[in-house]
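Ticket #4471: complex job returned nothing on first submit. Input attached below:
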Amino acid sequence: MIVAMSKDATAEEIQKVVAKIGEQGLRPIEMPGGDRVAIGVASAIPAELRQPLSEILEIMPGVDHVAQVSRAYKLASREFHPADTVVDIHGAKIGGNRVAIIAGPCAIESREQMLEAAEKVKEAGAALLRGGAFKPRTSPYAFQGLGEEGLRILRETSDLTGLPGVTEVMDHHDMPLVCRYADVIQIGARNMQNYPLLTAAGNADRPVLLKRGPSATIDEWLLAAEYILCQGNERVILCERGVHPLDRAYTRYTLDVSAVPVVKSISHLPIIVDPSHASGNWKYVAALCRAAIAAGADGLLVEVHPDPLSAQCDSQQQLKPVNFAAMVTEVRGLANALGRSL
Amino acid sequence: MIVAMSKDATAEEIQKVVAKIGEQGLRPIEMPGGDRVAIGVASAIPAELRQPLSEILEIMPGVDHVAQVSRAYKLASREFHPADTVVDIHGAKIGGNRVAIIAGPCAIESREQMLEAAEKVKEAGAALLRGGAFKPRTSPYAFQGLGEEGLRILRETSDLTGLPGVTEVMDHHDMPLVCRYADVIQIGARNMQNYPLLTAAGNADRPVLLKRGPSATIDEWLLAAEYILCQGNERVILCERGVHPLDRAYTRYTLDVSAVPVVKSISHLPIIVDPSHASGNWKYVAALCRAAIAAGADGLLVEVHPDPLSAQCDSQQQLKPVNFAAMVTEVRGLANALGRSL
Amino acid sequence: MIVAMSKDATAEEIQKVVAKIGEQGLRPIEMPGGDRVAIGVASAIPAELRQPLSEILEIMPGVDHVAQVSRAYKLASREFHPADTVVDIHGAKIGGNRVAIIAGPCAIESREQMLEAAEKVKEAGAALLRGGAFKPRTSPYAFQGLGEEGLRILRETSDLTGLPGVTEVMDHHDMPLVCRYADVIQIGARNMQNYPLLTAAGNADRPVLLKRGPSATIDEWLLAAEYILCQGNERVILCERGVHPLDRAYTRYTLDVSAVPVVKSISHLPIIVDPSHASGNWKYVAALCRAAIAAGADGLLVEVHPDPLSAQCDSQQQLKPVNFAAMVTEVRGLANALGRSL
Amino acid sequence: MIVAMSKDATAEEIQKVVAKIGEQGLRPIEMPGGDRVAIGVASAIPAELRQPLSEILEIMPGVDHVAQVSRAYKLASREFHPADTVVDIHGAKIGGNRVAIIAGPCAIESREQMLEAAEKVKEAGAALLRGGAFKPRTSPYAFQGLGEEGLRILRETSDLTGLPGVTEVMDHHDMPLVCRYADVIQIGARNMQNYPLLTAAGNADRPVLLKRGPSATIDEWLLAAEYILCQGNERVILCERGVHPLDRAYTRYTLDVSAVPVVKSISHLPIIVDPSHASGNWKYVAALCRAAIAAGADGLLVEVHPDPLSAQCDSQQQLKPVNFAAMVTEVRGLANALGRSL
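Support reply: We reran it on our side without changes. The output follows.
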């Protein structure tokens, strides 16, 4: 932490900042500069002290601003955990050399729909199955999902096809229920900072797929992961799904493909990409799948529906099985060209 | 709803779109244009059909894009409810000619702190008291609030000073608990699309202060309000608290002051402004309070702490009581100049 | 400047950074911390060295990142020029206690239109006249302005009414031409980083109204001002006109009203607000004018047209004279309540 | 164009809108809906009428809002020009099956530097050479380029290596000078809406590489291309270089990789990607190059410097030749896997 004093800060103001840092058991270092004095903190700052100390220093007289030198997250950081984390879900691995594809419909609508979807995506190369039983919808008038009946269908379909099932939980009180049926718990973008839910996920005996909120910075996202990790659940999979768009005319969000190499460089957690929600348009999904894998993503989360025209939600962004299969073939080619497999 | 066909759509593709609209019991109108045909829907579209129909039409062959003509929200719309809603909280009114100020510390830290804060803000002109017992924090290592002990202090302070208490609820299972102690339920920005929480708030016997999410469009915000309204709770107060910033160097968020006149023109719900979170810096709070009231806001939500330097969170954005009082005096002058009172 | 080393930087890597700083004639200070070493620069860094040094240090082995402690602008900074700059344009002052209103049509269309506009805005209280002769238009098919004929009309109208004229220059080779006719040179938002134009404005014998680019940070904006100031032209007026919008559904841009108190605190230059372009909708202009002045802006730039329905551009955002007059009355009331005049 | 009337618009207000459309020689169609009436325009709207008509209708009494059905650009649209445009620069083609790489230093610094850079990038597989002689810099104190001396070095290097040269022009009066030396004219992101410059480029006898402005929507970008195309210059190459970032902590901009498939679907113009400026960090450049080509980009624009540590600008984002060569090898593998060549 560096405290930049104002150009006209008095010697007394500087001494008060030095003293305040010392009071916390930290070691201050004065750095006389050209225009101004800066004061550095030359000790490890305990995590719980970091934010309040910064805020307090910021409002002391004579202080211009405070700059952070260290990252706010620890457990999610590669500095403290150099090796890649690989999450193993009954043999389906996310995080290693193999590209993992999670596919399935936006919402679970019926036993028949799920089974057809699961068989088609498995045949094409998917390693896990997705399907929503609890659907977060922008409008209260939209279809909200089948609830527990949907979870039951997911479990049955997983068992029949051997694809582990991924589904979203929106309410931490549903966590035990969802864990009974699902193999991976998904935290949706709208809930990235729903702290009771993150804490419950941290205590659940299931891997957690954590989507990035559409206006979350990468640090905020890794701090959300930290909420899960610090409860003892180390099986966190990050999922980039598009950030707030500059231009809503053609895509629903903007896929932040740079997040893939950035996260890979600063964190050990696996990162996958959801191009269905990022684009909101099936026409662009295959191109974004290719881009994600080329950028180094560990996998994909793709919406596939046996018949998008009859879907109860997100018709526009769900791939037909035939288009999904064509995309997987392309992605496999890219993965092989990069020395990976699928 | 208008379906714009591609320039090279065939007659058959056009007829299929016309037929699909007809199947829903809606009336299609063909509009031959210069470059392309457009097909309008000349009937009221039921709320639950709106989104899925739009998505399905969008992926039909020959369709270029679908444009919405009507708004997605109904109960929050001024078109269906022309008169301003005024929320009355034990005599403190939000939404009328009088400017309402809600003030108090970020977090409830102790009985003494709350009582001092409440007395100071009441003396200066606040009509309601705020204070957080459950604190949503970006970092898991930060202070998370006193919980029920904090709620008890809030209730006691409200009773002693006569200022109705406003506090955030983060978990819908805490709703009965929070309603036992608080006069107004706050839904925080991070939870604007936490649908179980919105639904619970819609069923609570308390007015609800609904903060705008930092990347929420105005329509998404009004749809979040619709979640509460459609459960039968008509006492919703909107709160603009800053949107995702273009520039984080000087303020934490960007106060979207235009949202005030926009919301006033399209919705009947009262709207207040929270300049403390919008700026994240106490130095700019007074200027933003003045701007909000000048733009027509119904009130303010302001963080005030007896001693910001000792605060357990948000030290940087909490006003000292003396600065709060000076701000209220200015705002009162502005309100009077505009024919309002405070 | 602070160089944060990686947690696992070697002693040799640290010494190379120390040496590199020393080579530039600057004084490095090592700060051993908890997790990592940081190295500060304890000398004034010459302006031309700042950016390249930062970039070079950033890529040296063992370096995690480089943080800036000082601002990049000097001449625009209040630290080096504590007193407010007041720009005097033939007696109309921008930057002092009096609120200055610049008003007039988007584009100069005819002698009659300008004269009527000028008389109406003068009567209502405007101190300067605006009108575009060279119009930057998003579409090449849109009306591009009257050019020199428009400038002549502006000059004549200014002379007849006594209102100094403000007009945009888009091409630095037009600078002498525009200076012949106009009293204030405007640099538009799209040209905020058009460096030949900024340099020409810095050499012109006219005050310069510099609009903020819609995606410019405040530092980038002040650096654009620095381009003008460093040529010796000290008469720069900043103009906030809306930043890239989160939501285009209701307004064209998002007025960043916080920029007013932020700029006031870090710079001595006067700042005015253009709510016409910020909102793109005349209905919201009056509310934003009030907000801007309440926030402390030195003035307003408002589009007014005698008959918006017949205007050749921006019909939607131009006020009718009667609405302009009503707005000025309200703003005068606010200004008076804040101890200012208009 | 569709005019949505307010729910409570009167019959007279509706008739006035109908009449106003008729006055322009266009055919109005009334569409009675559930909540409101909409009025469509069933004729091709002349390009120059489009914007003003929309603005005028928007402010007529009883009008709620106006929605556009057609795109604003014509010449850049694939609807009017279905076949892909391929730009041929002395045999180097941009837009066809072969991936084209443009590489070279940020700024031309010396004859030796350019020659070494050109030889290295040619050897690795680049088809064109880049280098800046006129540098747009955010700070007036930064290195501004060698000017004509730089152009001369570019020409000489191009001739020696056979790589056509690409360089930026910032001032339309320099257009003849730059065309004398360069094979491709670059319009930088900051100048995307510099209309005198776009018009001059439209009249130049050189292909034009048009960078997207960091806050430009895709429609605004294609309208900027339209400025060039409508002057008769059909050789326009679009270049995505990152949009305004949600998060500046790790990258300078956010690469909008979705723009690649979107532009491919709506326009016939070739599109390349500049990952150097998008990321601002050499570490992420290779990953973004791979993503761009996987998404379908026609080529890359990459900064390469023989010795980034000694570079006069953008040290941080320039690749070393060895890293460039490794990236090209990877991209070639990807291109081959997708049935393309490099």
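The radius of gyration of chain D is 23 Å. Closing as resolved unless it happens again.
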